[in-house]
């Protein structure tokens, strides 16, 4: 299973459902974009280090952006930016999930639900 950024944000904010989802899904994967979004949202270097340490402790598989993911994400932006407002970061996460053929756990189903190749699993915080 691939975790979307929002689920991990809920985890770090202390949400019990997110903590259960994480603990029941080990090991899980994330897109490299999710790692960047977590780092971007950190308040300081100490928080960034804590996030990095936690990802290592969990044994998270960081799925890096490759050519196939980039091509797929570009197609999603071309097809869905105007009609559904998909942004580059969500397109890359969607492309990662589609290329992996794995479920994407997210509370933001409206960001991905219109992409047929992405298998969603709804997270409710």
Tell me about this structure.
With 125 residues, this protein is an alpha/beta fold. The chain has one domain: 5'-nuclease (Rossmann fold), CATH 3.40.50.1010. Helix content is 60%, strand content 13%. It is built from 7 helices and 5 strands; from the N terminus they run E-H-H-E-H-H-E-H-H-E-H-E. The protein has helices spanning 5-12, 16-23, 32-41, 45-58, 67-84, 88-100, 109-112; strands at residues 2-3, 29-31, 61-63, 103-106, 119-122. Strands 1-4-5 form a 3-stranded parallel β-sheet. It has a two-stranded parallel ribbon with strand order 2-3. Helix 1 (5-12) crosses helix 2 and helix 5 (67-84) crosses helix 6 (88-100).
Produce a short descriptive summary:
60% of the residues lie in helices and 13% in strands. Helix 1 packs across helix 2 and helix 5 packs across helix 6.
- Return residue spans where pLDDT drops below 50 for at least 5 consecutive residues: none
- Strand % is 5-15%
CATH fold naming:
Rossmann fold
Shape designation? globular
The largest sheet has its strands arranged as: 1-4-5
* CATH superfamily (homologous) name: 5'-nuclease
Main pleated sheet: 3 strands, parallel
**What is the string of helix and strand elements?**
EHHEHHEHHEHE
Which CATH first-tier class would you pick? Alpha Beta
Looking at this protein, list some descriptive labels.
125 residues; alpha/beta; Rossmann fold; three-stranded parallel beta sheet; globular
Structural topology:
Layout: E1 2-3, H1 5-12, H2 16-23, E2 29-31, H3 32-41, H4 45-58, E3 61-63, H5 67-84, H6 88-100, E4 103-106, H7 109-112, E5 119-122
Parallel strand pairs: 1-4, 2-3, 4-5
């Amino acid at each position: 299973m691939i975790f979307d950024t929002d689920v991990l944000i809920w985890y770090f904010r202390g949400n019990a459902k997110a903590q259960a989802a994480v603990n029941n899904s080990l090991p899980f994967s994330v897109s490299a974009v999710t790692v960047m979004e977590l780092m971007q949202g950190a308040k300081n270097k100490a928080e960034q280090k804590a996030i990095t340490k936690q990802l290592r402790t969990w044994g998270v598989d960081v799925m890096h952006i490759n050519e196939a993911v980039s091509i797929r994400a570009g197609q999603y932006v071309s097809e869905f930016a105007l009609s559904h407002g998909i942004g580059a970061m969500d397109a890359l996460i969607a492309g990662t999930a589609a290329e992996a053929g794995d479920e994407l756990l997210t509370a933001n189903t409206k960001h991905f639900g219109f992409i047929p190749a992405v298998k969603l699993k709804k997270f409710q915080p």
